[in-house]
Design goal:
By secondary structure, this protein is mainly β. About 10% of the residues lie in helices and about 50% in strands. The chain is built from two helices and 16 strands. The strands form two sheets. Strands 1, 4, 5, 6, 8, 9, 10, 12, 13, 14, 15 and 16 form a twelve-stranded mixed β-sheet that branches. A four-stranded mixed β-sheet has the order 2-3-7-11, with no helix packed on it. A hairpin with a 2-residue loop joins β15 and β16. The protein is globular. The relative contact order is 0.12. About 5% of the residues have low confidence.
């Protein structure tokens, strides 16, 4: 990470309002081990500390974030050892923009716009809304995946198909909605 720019921020008792945050040149890793456990470069407050904080008289502090965006050259080193063959990729994030989030309004929609390059030729675009602070996951978005090499997805589908792809390309225009633990998705696949 080469820089972080944080917009105007206001502090009050039990409330923090953070202006827009821009991260530049992010380089991080996301991995899943052979047992299926995800490893993220994030540290979590111990359960006892979180419980003690929520039991205080004032209650947990509230926050809002005016938005989050990535600029510059952003990469995620992704590996998944939970599939065979294992997947290892360096994914370029060309654009990621999230709108306002507010812990006092967890069910308010947050705008999402994302453009990533899973490899040199493939591209994924996703635009819509989500609720990152809601009690259950919510997303309503349209997307398009183009130029995905079929051989790169063998680790995800080969055991189900009983065969591996030797070559070819996948393009997919899709709509996805997850609300109240229900998934609704439409796909237009071209192989």
């Amino acid at each position: 990470l080469s820089s972080v720019n944080i917009g105007p921020t206001r502090y009050a008792p039990q409330q923090v309002d953070v202006g827009p945050v821009t991260l530049r040149d992010l380089d991080t890793r996301v991995a899943r081990d052979a047992r299926g456990n995800w490893k993220l470069p994030v540290s979590y407050v111990a359960a006892e500390e979180a419980s003690a904080a929520s039991d205080s008289e004032a209650g947990p502090a509230q926050f809002s974030l005016a938005g989050l965006s990535l600029k510059g050259r952003n990469r995620v080193q992704f590996s998944d050892s939970g599939v065979r063959p294992a997947i290892k990729k360096s994914i370029a994030i060309e654009k990621l923009e999230l709108g306002r989030m507010d812990s006092r309004k967890p069910n308010r929609n947050t705008a999402l716009s994302m453009r990533i390059k899973p490899d040199k030729y493939a591209a994924l675009a996703l635009d819509g809304t989500l609720r990152p602070l809601g009690k259950s996951f919510y997303i309503d978005a349209k997307g398009e995946l183009s130029g995905q090499a079929l051989a790169d997805v063998n680790g995800l589908v080969a055991s189900d198909l009983g065969h591996k792809f030797l070559n070819g390309q996948l393009d997919n225009a899709f709509e996805i909605k997850i609300a109240k633990n229900h998934l609704k998705m439409s796909n237009k696949l071209d192989l």
